[in-house]
Specification:
Length: about 250
């Protein structure tokens, strides 16, 4: 079982902080086309295919893109325990995400299967850009220094908001510094479900939206006391089993 949580909280230093081949489809189905279009919109901020297929206006496509970016940045804020930032830091983070998706995103639609007349299961391949893993060590160093400076009185703040916004600004700076050095992980596949509603609109399941958000830009798994205990228990069980085999 995987357990994810705020990186800072796990450290005990802060509070809770896709053309590809078609298989099994015959003629290109709507679900395949829609998936390509929505990925191009999400990752490339290219609404042309989405607008052509759905009839959406430029304004409607922009609203969908903004919603996806806001959702993605909410994961950033949760992972790093960012509870408050000013407009400049938020804009910096947004610009970073847009640059990552445009310059680093590697994805393609592999195949789709028609489940019914209005529903498709689509398989996508993505290659994760390990920005956050690459930045992790420097983030820990930053966080420890930030805490120490505050606790020692080397840095003072007028109020809590100033403290929180300064922390957030530093986090974005640390992560951004790793844009040119981070590497890629191994390509993985995932499946999503595309549904066409009675009114002719298309939609993805909420869980699939979340998967798409982090497929290109995943967050490291954070070990907590619970995961450490589970791993220790699994290791102990494996050791006992090995000892029993040896005894036999």
């Amino acid at each position: 079982m995987n357990h994810y949580c705020s990186r800072a909280a796990a450290l005990g230093l802060a509070a809770v902080l896709t053309a590809a081949s078609l298989t099994g489809c015959g003629a290109t189905p709507e679900g395949y086309t829609y998936t390509e279009a929505i990925l191009d919109l999400y990752y490339e901020n290219d609404p042309s295919a989405y607008m052509e297929m759905t009839g959406a206006t430029e304004e409607e496509a922009a609203k969908l893109y903004d919603s996806a970016m806001n959702r993605t940045m909410s994961y950033f804020k949760t992972y790093y325990s960012v509870t408050k930032w000013d407009d400049a830091t938020r804009d910096q983070c947004l610009a970073l995400y847009e640059r990552i998706y445009k310059e680093k995103a590697q994805y393609k639609v592999l195949s789709c299967t028609t489940g019914s007349s209005n529903q498709w299961t689509v398989t996508i391949e993505t290659t994760p850009f390990n920005l956050f893993t690459d930045a992790d060590e420097d983030y820990i160093t930053y966080l420890e220094g930030f805490r120490d400076d505050y606790e020692s009185g080397n840095v003072t703040y007028e109020d809590k908001d100033e403290y929180l916004m300064d922390y957030a600004d530093g986090v974005v700076d640390v992560v951004e510094e790793h844009f040119d050095t981070a590497d890629y992980g191994e390509a993985t596949t995932m499946t999503i479900t595309v549904t066409k509603n009675e009114d002719g609109t298309y939609e993805l399941e909420e869980n699939d939206k979340a998967f798409l958000d982090v497929a290109i830009l995943p967050y490291p798994e954070v070990e907590t006391e619970e995961t450490a205990d589970e791993e220790e228990s699994e290791t102990s069980s494996e050791t006992e089993a090995a000892e029993e085999e040896t005894a036999e």
